[in-house]
Amino acid sequence: MLLAYAMEAERALLPEWNDDAFCSAVFLAAHHLAPDSVTLLGPGADEVRQTVVAPGEVARRLAEVPLPEVTAAALRSAVTGATDAARYWEEPDGEDLLAAAEPVRRELRRIAEHITRSPLSQWWTEPLATDDQWSVSWGDDGADFADSTAAERLRDWHARVVDEEIRAERERPTNPAANWSAEWWSIPPVLCSTRTVFDGTPAQLWFVEDSLGWTRATARRVSLPPDARVYEVDGAQAWAALCRRFPVEVTAQKRHDWYRATGRNGSWVVPDWARLADEYSGVHLTVAGYLAAAGTAIEVEAGTASVIAGWAPDETYWLTVTAELGADSVALLLDDSGEDVAWAEEAQH
C-alpha cells in the first residue's frame, strides 16, 4: 500500500513516463526480482530486460518523491490497489519483493508517517462502525443467504473442513512445493459488511481481493442491535489469539497455497467459526489490521501458524442472526470512463 501511495504521488507530479523517475525504477526492479510477474512486450522490451535497477536505487529515488497533502481519494486508491494485488496461491510478485527489501522498507517509513499523521487515515484503526454497515453483492447475484441460517452454514462449513482435511491428508502430497492448489481463503461462509467511505459508497465496493472485474453491484444496509458482540482483529496478535482459542486444522488442504504465499512450511490452522459463534456475533478486521497482517504467516503457537486470506479491509463477517439486511437495495454501476473511477447509483428507467 505504501509503495502504491508513493507511486501515485509521483504520477500526480510527473504524469509522463520518465526513465529517471521512481515509478520507472519500481517497474524495472520488480521485473528483475520476479521476471515472471511482469510481462514485457513491444519495442524496447529487450533493453528493459538488460537494465538492472537495484532496491538501493529505488530507495534513493523514493527519498526524492515529494509527498502531496493526503486526500481521502489517494488513500482509498492505495488501499484498493494493495487489496486487489493480494495473492495467496502464488509466490510474491516483484513489487512484493521490492517493498520487502530493507533499503526500500526504510524509505517507506516516511510514507507511513506521512499517511498516519493525517486525520483521514484515523478510521483505519477504528472498531466496527455499528451505525453504518452495508452488504454488497456482485453482478446480478442478489444472494443474501436467505436460504439458510448462519448457524446451519457454519455447521456445514465445519463438517466440510474436517472432511476435506482427512481427504487431503490421504490424497495430496506432503511436499509443500508440489504443484497443487485448492481453497486458499480463511473466511466464514456468512453475511459480510463494511462501512461507507468518504463518498458514501460501501468500502466493500473498493477493497476486493481477487477481483473479477465487476462493474455492477447491489448494496443493502445492515442493521445491528446495540448489544452485538464483535471480535476486533486489529493485527496479527488478535488473529493468533482467535486461532489459539478456536483452532481447526487445515494443514493438508492449505499447505501448498500458503507455502507459496508465505514461504513457510509447517502446520496450519484457521479459526473454528462454528465454535466462535457461541461467543461472538461477528468478527471485524480493521484496515490497519489488514495492512499489517493479511497474507503473512501468523504464528499461533510453536510449529503452528495461520493466514488472514480472502478478507478485505474493514470487513465484518456475521456469525449469528444479529445482522439483518434491509429490505431496500441500491443498484450501483462502476464508471471508469473518466480519469476518476466512481461507483454511482444506477438510473431507474
Report on this structure.
With 349 residues, the protein is α+β, with helices and mostly antiparallel strands. It has 2 domains: 2-124, no CATH class; 134-345, no CATH class. It is built from 13 helices and 13 strands. It has helices spanning 2-13, 22-33, 45-50, 55-63, 72-84, 94-100, 102-116, 150-171, 203-206, 236-245, 251-262, 273-276, 287-293; strands at 134-138, 192-193, 216-223, 230-233, 247-249, 267-271, 282-285, 298-301, 304-306, 316-318, 324-325, 330-335, 342-345. Strands 1, 3, 11, 12 and 13 form a 5-stranded antiparallel sheet that branches. The chain has a 4-stranded mixed sheet with strand order 2-10-7-4. A 4-stranded mixed sheet has the order 5-6-9-8, sandwiched between helices. Strand 12 and strand 13 form a beta hairpin. Helix 1 crosses helix 5 (72-84), helix 2 (22-33) runs antiparallel to helix 4 and helix 2 crosses helix 6 (94-100). The mean pLDDT is 92.
